[in-house]
Amino acid sequence: MTDEQNPENDGRDEQESNADRVNDKRKIDPETGEPRGQAGAASGENPDAAPAGAGAADAAPAGADATDDELAALLAEGERDLVAEYRDTAARAQAELVNFRTRVERDRAANREAVIAEVIRSLLPAIDDLDRAEKHGDLTEGSPLEIVAQKLRGGFDRYGLKKVGEVGEPFDPKLHEALVQIPSADVTVNTVADVIETGYLLGERLIRAAKVAVHSPE
């Protein structure tokens, strides 16, 4: 029986061939005559090197996360600035509203006082006539004229109308109008000697200055 017909010989040849291939540690390739390992080095291939683009692929998610964080921070900062701006605008609007209401109330009170002052000023001649009638004894108690005088004076009192000009008080050019000046040794300052026409104040508004005679120091 020949080797080709013997299966045992085929098995031994295959095992010997595998053993030679596994244990072949020669640095020179017997078939090509070139040093082993240079072919891979010449081609620039490194079996241990990571595949090209792997680092960039790994770095991309990290960069994306950083961009998302920066965007979130910018959005949060913008939201805070917007809220602060809205609050500042609301505070200014509220302050302007309060100032507007205060100004309206002040103007309303001033206009009301001006209207009342004008009405009272138009009625002062009637008050003067009643005062003269009272000095002459024409306002007897219970008479129709005396009743009218009481009602008219009561209405003026409710609005805060006050008389200006009393004999003996110091002369005040803001409240008095001097029609006569009489030198006197009895005074050291200008003093009201007589009230010719009564003046009136409505609150702090002068409706009419009092016309007076004045004693002045000699």
UniProtKB/TrEMBL annotation:
Its main location: cytoplasm. PROSITE patterns: GRPE (PS01071). InterPro entries: GrpE, GrpE_CC, GrpE_head. It comes from Schumannella soli. The lineage of its organism: Bacteria, Bacillati, Actinomycetota, Actinomycetes, Micrococcales. Residues 9-34 have a biased composition (Basic and acidic residues). Participates actively in the response to hyperosmotic and heat shock by preventing the aggregation of stress-denatured proteins, in association with DnaK and GrpE. It is the nucleotide exchange factor for DnaK and may function as a thermosensor. Unfolded proteins bind initially to DnaJ; upon interaction with the DnaJ-bound protein, DnaK hydrolyzes its bound ATP, resulting in the formation of a stable complex. GrpE releases ADP from DnaK; ATP binding to DnaK triggers the release of the substrate protein, thus completing the reaction cycle. Residues 47-65 have a biased composition (Low complexity). It is found in: Cytoplasm. The gene is grpE. The keyword Cytoplasm applies. SUPFAM superfamilies: Coiled-coil domain of nucleotide exchange factor GrpE, Head domain of nucleotide exchange factor GrpE. GO terms for biological process: protein folding. Keywords: Chaperone, Coiled coil, Cytoplasm, Stress response. This is Protein GrpE. Residues 76-103 form a coiled coil.
